[in-house]
Design brief:
Strand order of the largest sheet of chain A: 6-7-8-3-9-10
CATH architecture of the domain at 11-118 and 194-278 in chain A: 3-Layer(aba) Sandwich
Order of helices and strands of chain A: HEEEHEEHEHHHHHEHEHEEHH
CATH superfamily of the largest domain in chain B: MetI-like
Largest sheet of chain B: none
Chains: A alpha/beta (283), B mainly alpha (375), C mainly alpha (340)
Oligomer: heterotrimer
Radius of gyration of chain B: 32 Å
Largest sheet of chain A: 6 strands, mixed
Distance between the termini of chain A: 35 Å
Chain lengths: 283, 375, 340
């Protein structure tokens, strides 16, 4: 095979080659298969399919309003928390459809974590408590020694330990915006997810904090499968290895126009719409 | 202060060139300036009109018009001051400024009147209550065997205080979980039932307090044969308090940002744990304030207890048997008796009630400040 | 190895006609219990309070059946003659409430404007608390204040109004105001004094709502007014007040609802009189809540039913007013962010 050559591989071979059925050393394989989504009678996603591979950061790019965030939220079943939301298709974590009846939704969300656009540390908890909030909310217990280790580990992975190690007793909202977002990342990591979904995590932050978080993403990608929504193309180019370009023209639901290696999407896109977008002809 | 080696400025402040021909730089003073929009005209015209009006009205009031009464004097003085103020302002300022100043005068006057009314209420009640409060027996005895014309060294409001405590206590124990539970149902459980409950709860906050008492009277006392007692009064207070607590609690829960709930759910928490560990702790201070204000309201309610509990004169700590007195009820009967000594007792009880409400109120301020301080 | 999902692997699920799936949220037992308990509490409260409203309405039926429409037109309340009607009662209720609103609306508006626009920043939260404190003072304390402190002085105002504006029917009093030893007792215990007492309770209510709405007026518009050279009042008049219309009206309606239902302060002040009159300065009037409070003790079951009916009518009035207020506030620009 030469680089850039298109290869069609059947699913079963892929499964054999890539992820073993059990997760955990190094992220899990997440795959969306023909995902469609509605809000009421308004269809917002049309048969979107996308594999998101472990060890790889997948970026979802596209103009605003084309369904990227909605798609992201179908991946950890947050989409259905809106009353009028409807869903079709499958989302498979290591081959198992997470929407199967009988699948515990809370379990799914523990395996597939999410970091939101606006940092949202819990105001009623200290920094340290925020990190372990996920465990408390799941009813898991850890001994005091384990807890301290866990806090240090997660904050280190999130790139925040050195800045807050003496301040763990302060309230969660006493930090700057960028620090709060890294705290939220640490909080998500504490429950040991296989996948981490990030919905425009840097859009509310200054460039310095954005840098730090991108660094964190690079450090995390080998342990956790990362899917990031961003409408900053340069960020997508910096941070991701795979890219999917979403588009929704007026009145039509969102679709993936093109997906593939980041390098290829930016330098040699196959679809003219993709090339128009990445070259800034619309946005 | 930014300085360079330059020639000192000339007498009128303009920059001068240094002797060797280098370009000059102004010596810049970097300290913040005092920025105030108030001018001498503002203060002088206000004070001047006030004094001038005072003199004018003084002259006119008793001499020419022959009226009496402090209230009339004040009103006339205020109107004269407005007139002078408007006139003086119009001499040197455009019409918009005149209107602006007049508006300010009216706004201040309105606020002062309201503040004055509140101040006189508080001071008067406490002042009139001192007479009865001075006696220690006021706090330790009840009115058993004491008549309305017996001196203040006899009798007291112990039974009323105990009664208030018991009645409000029972009411809180029932209304608090009902109220907060209802609020949680409205804000956290999906579905349409929440809207119906919300509508009814809001409608019930419009229930006049006397009707709460009348409802309990007709159903429990006449319908079920329950005695007029502390318990019946507590039920009436519960009917009053529950919608109010439910509505305030609902507002506090609604204010918790949705992003926090989502964060909790995204961590894999069940809804129950999200509510218990994220939503409720975040709303804790607001909920506590709502509760305390509800209690303050219940303590002062007279109409519901008037109908449902008789006004006993003796200490009765059993809410299920026999009439039970409470502070507002005691005040009502004492004051209506027409006897000066009883009226003094009534004011004493009113002073106690007022202090109680003030204390509860300060607690809510303290709670609010506590939350702000954390940020 | 790279993968180019542009030619996606063949999906294992057939692309059917793309209909939404039935998704089971998979609630844990704890969650199910939580939702059921919350629902139980909510529906219990709904049942209890709904039944109060229904109960009051139900009790009204025998009264209506007995007295018919004359219940609304008769002003006398003589149960022993079987002559009962709430026309004077309703009129008195509305009179006292209207007086309270007329007095408290401007005062509440000015106070709210003062706190929101004119007061120094460091005093603001203290002043807001003071308004809340004023609302928390029990109504019986205001009743005492009005009866003992205000009334002896306010009757002079009544007499002045009678003297100089007595040609207006509302200010007439059946006594000679110009007599040297004028009859003070003609001016006490009137709807006017009761209205003043009730206004002490409605002022903080309306002021609190109005102030919270003023605080929400958008900063951008305020700055635009100043940038055009407006004075402070000019800005208030062009930005704050138009924005707050809903809150001003809503707050006043809420206050009206409270005024209609106020019992104890009115009870302490007025001297019951059942004639249909609008002479508010004159002694004697009657309101629904003071009627119930005064008469329930000696009432036979028929009279009790009549009192309940009067109460039901009052409840309908306060409910209508409060609903109106809520609608006004919600539809206004300040919207549902305002708490009333």
């Amino acid at each position: 095979m030469t680089p850039g050559e298109t290869v069609v591989v059947s699913t079963s071979t892929l499964d054999d080659l890539l992820a073993p059925p059990e997760p955990r050393r190094g992220g899990a394989r997440l795959e969306a298969v023909n995902v469609s989504a509605w809000f009421g009678s308004n269809k917002v996603l049309e048969r979107v399919s996308l594999p998101m591979l472990p060890g790889v950061v997948t970026a979802l790019i596209g103009p605003s309003g084309c369904g990227k965030s909605t798609f992201l939220r179908t991946l950890n079943r947050m989409h259905e928390s809106v009353a009028s939301a409807k869903f079709a298709g499958e989302v498979r974590l290591n081959g198992n459809d997470i929407y199967q009846p009988g699948h515990r939704i809370t379990q799914t969300r523990r395996s597939i974590g999410m970091v939101f656009q606006k940092p949202n540390p819990f105001p009623a908890m200290t920094i340290g408590d925020n990190v372990t909030a996920g465990l408390k909310l799941n009813g898991s217990r850890v001994s005091r020694g384990e807890r301290a280790d866990l806090i240090e580990r997660c904050l280190t992975r999130a790139g925040l330990w050195s800045e807050v190690k003496d301040r763990l007793g302060e309230p969660g909202q006493a930090l700057s915006g960028g620090q709060q977002q890294r705290l939220c990342i640490a909080r998500s990591l504490a429950v040991d997810p296989a996948v981490l979904l990030m919905d425009e995590p840097c859009s509310a932050l200054d460039p310095g904090s954005t840098n730090r978080i991108e660094e964190t993403i690079r450090e995390l990608k080998d342990d956790v499968t990362i899917v990031i929504v961003t409408h900053n193309m340069q960020q997508a180019a910096r941070v991701s290895q795979q890219c999917a370009f979403f588009l929704a023209t007026q009145g039509t639901p969102g679709i993936i126009v093109e997906a593939g290696d980041t390098e290829q999407i930016f330098n040699d896109p196959k679809d003219s719409r993709t090339s128009d977008y990445v070259n800034g002809r619309f946005g | 202060m930014a300085t360079t080696d330059t020639a000192p400025p000339s007498a009128d402040g303009t920059p001068t060139s240094p002797a060797d021909g280098r370009p000059s730089v102004l010596v810049v003073d970097d300290r913040p300036r005092a920025l105030s929009t108030r001018t001498l005209d503002d203060s002088a015209s206000l004070v001047g009109s006030a004094l001038g009006a005072l003199a004018l009205v003084w002259l006119v009031y008793s001499q020419i018009l022959g009226w009496d009464g402090v209230l009339g004097f004040l009103i006339l003085w205020y109107l004269a001051m407005l007139g002078l103020y408007a006139g003086v302002t119009a001499l040197a300022n455009p019409r918009t400024v005149v209107i602006d100043r007049l508006a300010m005068a009216w706004v201040y006057a309105g606020a002062i009147v309201v503040g004055f009314a509140l101040a006189t209420t508080l001071v008067y009640t406490l002042w009139q209550g001192v007479e009865a409060l001075r006696h220690w027996n006021f706090y330790r005895h009840d009115m058993a065997g004491v008549g309305p014309i017996d001196p203040l060294t006899q009798g007291g409001v112990l039974h009323a205080m105990v009664g208030s405590f018991i009645e409000v206590g029972i009411a809180v124990v029932i209304a608090l979980p009902l109220g907060i539970g209802t609020a949680v149902y409205i804000t956290e459980v999906p579905g349409r039932g929440g809207r119906w409950v919300r509508t009814v709860v809001e409608a019930m906050t419009a229930l006049p307090d006397i009707l709460a008492g009348l409802f309990i009277y007709v159903t429990l006392i006449i319908g079920l044969g329950v005695q007029r007692s502390g318990f019946a009064a507590a039920m009436a207070l519960t009917v009053m308090m529950t919608p109010i607590i439910a509505r305030s609690a609902e507002v506090q829960l609604r204010v918790v940002p949705g992003g926090l709930r989502e964060a909790g759910l995204a961590l894999g928490a069940s809804q129950w744990r999200t509510v218990r560990n994220v939503v409720l702790p975040t709303a804790k201070a607001g909920l506590a304030t709502a509760l305390i204000l509800g209690v303050a309201r219940a303590v002062g309610e007279t109409a519901p207890v008037l109908i449902t509990s008789g006004a006993s004169t003796f200490l009765n700590a059993n809410p299920f048997q026999n009439p039970m007195n409470s502070l507002p009820l005691f005040i009502l009967f004492a004051v209506r008796s027409g006897q000066p000594i009883d009226i003094a007792r009534g004011f004493g009880a009113a002073a106690i009630l007022l202090v109680l409400v003030l204390v509860l109120f300060v607690m809510t301020r303290f709670l609010a400040r506590d939350r702000v301080g954390k940020r | 190895m790279t993968l180019a999902p542009a030619l996606a692997p063949t999906p294992a699920v057939e692309p059917d006609d793309d209909q939404p799936r039935d998704i089971d949220p998979g609630l844990s037992p704890a969650d199910r219990l939580f939702q059921h308990s919350a629902r139980a509490i909510g529906l219990t409260v709904l049942a209890i309070f709904g039944s109060i409203g229904i109960f009051l309405g139900y009790q009204a039926i025998p009264t209506f059946r007995h007295y018919g429409w004359s219940f609304f037109t008769e002003n006398e309340w003589q149960p022993q003659l079987d002559k009962l009607g709430i026309s004077a009662v309703i009129l008195g209720t509305v009179e006292v409430a209207l007086i309270a609103i007329v007095v408290s609306f401007p005062l509440a508006l000015l106070t709210a404007l003062f706190i929101s626009e004119y007061s120094p920043a460091r005093l603001k939260s203290g002043l807001v608390s003071l308004v809340d404190l004023m609302a928390a003072v029990p109504s019986i304390v205001y009743g005492l204040w009005a009866f003992f402190l205000l009334q002896p002085r306010a009757i002079y105002v009544s007499r002045w109004l009678n003297q100089h504006l007595g040609f207006l029917p509302i200010f007439k009093v059946d006594a000679d105001p110009n007599a040297a030893a004028w009859q003070q007792s003609s001016y006490t215990s009137s709807a006017f004094i009761a209205g003043l007492a009730v206004s002490m309770m409605t002022i903080p209510l309306a002021a609190a709502v109005m102030r919270s709405v003023f605080a929400q007026a958008p900063l951008g518009e305020r700055e635009a007014a100043f940038a055009l050279g407006a004075t402070r009042w000019g800005m208030i008049r062009s930005v704050v007040i138009p924005f707050s219309q809903g809150g001003i009206i809503g707050g006043s309606m809420l206050a009206l609802g409270r005024a209609l239902g106020e019992t104890i302060a009115v009870l302490l002040i007025i001297s019951p009189a059942f004639d249909l009159k609008i002479r508010m300065l004159e002694v004697g009037t009657i309101t629904t809540s003071s009627l119930i409070a005064g008469l329930f003790g000696d009432a036979t079951s028929a009279q009790l039913s009549a009192l309940l009916t009067a109460g039901f009518v009052l409840f309908c009035m306060t409910l209508a007013v409060n609903t109106f207020a809520a609608v006004f506030v919600n539809r206004s620009r300040s919207g549902t962010a305002t708490e009333i």
